[in-house]
Amino acid sequence: MCFAEFGQSDGRDPPQPILSPIHRLAAMTNGALGSYDLRLVLMEFYETQYQIYNHDDPALQSPLALVSLHPKENATEYSLLYRYLERYRLTGIKEEFGLSVLEFLRLPMDVAEHLLFMARDAMAKRQPEIDAALKGMKKGTER
Questions:
Q1: CA-based angle 33:34:38, to the nearest 5?
Q2: Residue predicted with more confidence, 133 or 11
C-alpha cells in the first residue's frame, strides 16, 4: 500500500485527516501542478514504491519494465477462484461430498461456502482419530 495512513487522523482536536502524499504535494506546489501532472507524479511514486520502475535511477531498469507483469501486480494468485480451488483441496470436498472441482465451482456461492464450512467441521471432528492413528504409527516405528 502506498499510503499506509489512509483514513487515519493526526490526533488533533478536532481531528484532521492525514493527507496522502499526492495531497501533500498539491499543497506544497500551491496549485502550480495541474491534475494531469499530479497524476503523473502519483504514478511515478506508485511505480517506485512497488519496485516496478525506479524513476530515481532509470539506468538500472529494463526498457520494458513499465509494460511487463510484475509479481506485486499479479492479482491472479489471490483471486477468488484460486482461493476456492485451494479451499476445495484443503477441506476434502471431493472425499466428503463426492463433488468434482467443476461441480463445486458451479454451485451458488452461499451453498459452496456452507459445504466448505461443513467439510471443515467434519475434518475437525475426525482430527482426534487421525492424531491417535499417527501416534500409534509413530509408536510402531520406534520399536
A1: 70
A2: 133
Neighbouring C-beta atoms of residue 142, cutoff 10 Å: 6
C-beta separation of 61 from 53 below 8 A: yes
Q: Please give the distance of CA 39 from its chain centroid, rounded to a whole number.
A: 25
Distances (CA, A) of 63 to 12, 54, 55, 58: 46, 11, 12, 9
Domain boundaries along the sequence of the chain: 21-66, 76-142
Find all residues with CB under 8 Å of 121, minimum gap 6, and list them. none
User: What letter represents residue 25's amino acid?
Assistant: L
Q: How many residues does the chain have?
A: 143
**Triad 15, 18, 23: Cα angle to 5°:** 130
The residue that leads in pLDDT, 68 or 83, is 83
